[in-house]
Design goal:
With 123 residues, the protein is mainly α. The chain has a single domain, classed as de novo design (two linked rop proteins), CATH 1.20.1440.60. The chain has four helices and no strands. The longest helix is centred in the C-terminal third of the chain and has 33 residues. The two termini are 31 Å apart.
Length: 123
């Protein structure tokens, strides 16, 4: 997948998560998860965009690791929403699936970036 396409995909993902977060109930738990979900999902998009502008392989690897972690955290909060029955499962599942797909993409990217850095160190 091209980086420009993934930039658009992560931004759309963040927008969808924000819209879902604003639909959470006005309870203590709903408010807490709203903040967490907005923070980590928008971090996915912002940090991936920053990774694409990295000046070095090491910088890219560090940023893509953050993106991977934030995507996985987003999946956690979506799973939590489902398990706590805060929103209808049918509303959350498509976003959870996207989070899982993005997590797999960034896990692979992180592995490749790590391998590339190690290969650069071989004399």
């Amino acid at each position: 997948m091209e980086s420009e396409e993934l930039i658009k995909r992560t931004k759309a993902f963040a927008h969808r998560c924000v819209r879902l977060a604003t639909a959470l109930p006005e309870t203590t738990l709903g408010k807490h998860i709203r903040g967490q979900l907005i923070r980590c999902s928008t971090s996915v998009a912002a940090n991936y965009r920053a990774a694409c502008l990295s000046q070095s392989k090491a910088s890219f690897s560090a940023k893509i690791s953050i993106v991977f972690e934030e995507t996985d955290e987003t999946a956690f909060w979506l799973e939590f929403i489902i398990s706590e029955k805060l929103l209808k499962k049918e509303l959350v599942e498509p976003l959870l699936q996207e989070a899982q797909e993005l997590t797999a993409i960034f896990a692979a990217s992180r592995k490749t970036a790590s391998t590339n850095i190690k290969m650069d160190r071989i004399p």
